[in-house]
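Exercise (ungraded).
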Amino acid sequence: MSVITIERKILEKNDEIAAENRALFARHGVFVINMVSSPGAGKTSILERSLERLKGELKVAVIEGDVQTDLDAQRVARYGVPAVQIVTRGGCHLEANLVRDALKNIDLSGIQVLIIENVGNLVCPSNYDLGEAMKVVVASTTEGDDKPLKYPAMFRNASVLVINKIDLIPYVNSSLSTLRGNALQINPALRIFETSCTTGAGIDEWCSWLAERERTTG
Amino acid sequence: MSVITIERKILEKNDEIAAENRALFARHGVFVINMVSSPGAGKTSILERSLERLKGELKVAVIEGDVQTDLDAQRVARYGVPAVQIVTRGGCHLEANLVRDALKNIDLSGIQVLIIENVGNLVCPSNYDLGEAMKVVVASTTEGDDKPLKYPAMFRNASVLVINKIDLIPYVNSSLSTLRGNALQINPALRIFETSCTTGAGIDEWCSWLAERERTTG
């Protein structure tokens, strides 16, 4: 069917641009992560806590992807880091060319880590390489422990899983060990962190690991 | 750009089939809702509580849409209602032709209400008419109160908003009145219910309204 062919062409073109982005990041020694999750899992909150924690240690820039509004870029810009908002106007995921365009507004020579916060969507962003070093999927405890089984591509394509809102575990019908088990069943290589942006739990461990990754590969 | 044209053709074709589905539902006097939300907002839990509450009052059938697994159809089938699972295998939304195919497994003359639970995704399902009488968007308090502003198409295209997990309000940095206000700013005609599947709050009000709608239009 022709639609599949065209979808394939879009993905091929996307992969080409993603490779160019990746080469650009390598030339500047910038470590890039692509954060993905359901809407409201807490990507922006984790980002805010991480920017607080990494201040003075790592030079970070942020690209925010949203269907509509620049609310997230506003939140992030308060932490004094370069922040660019991509508004997709209905588009359900970021593509490599949108990131390439956003990069025109960031001085890569001045930063060490670029965090791209994708559109909140557990399906579509899994297919689109942006040129990142790794995808980080955020899953909150309130979403239920079955999400890795129901949205396997996202968990398979990610290198890191951040389980967020662990402070809410006592109040939800969801098991942390079942969630971990389901995630590892889909992707046994996942590095898992457990965080709460309300209590601050786990943020230090996640940020230390990120800084260590940057030192190793940046 | 050719991609846009093809996307338009897909949507036109989808709308044609949705109109056929709608005519079929009308012939059988079946009231159909299309439930949409982020992954893990609680669509299936609301469905389970609703099936309990409506037992003996309304004959309900369910079509479940998921990227992978038939976990949800299994959950729903326990309530003794006809349940058909559509597995999209990576597809990020249901389309009218998938629903048409699923209908071959349901005896429409034996039911009054058909509930279609869409793939968990706040973006893509908003564009695809399935032939439903109305879209019901579920938003949970744990997702934050800004979601209507960030995913406006879904809230604009829905007739009903169910705010779920209201029992978690004391534990999250999210305001019920801000969420309601943001939703009504995007769609002033939204009928809003507030529910908790843990405490059962609001389920009776929602189900009474649904039964009343069925009586009026079915």
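Further reading is listed at the end of the chapter. For now, observe: The beta strands of chain A are 31-37, 60-66, 83-87, 113-117, 134-140, 160-164, 191-194. Helices of chain A lie at 2-27, 43-54, 71-77, 96-103, 147-150, 152-157, 176-186, 203-217.
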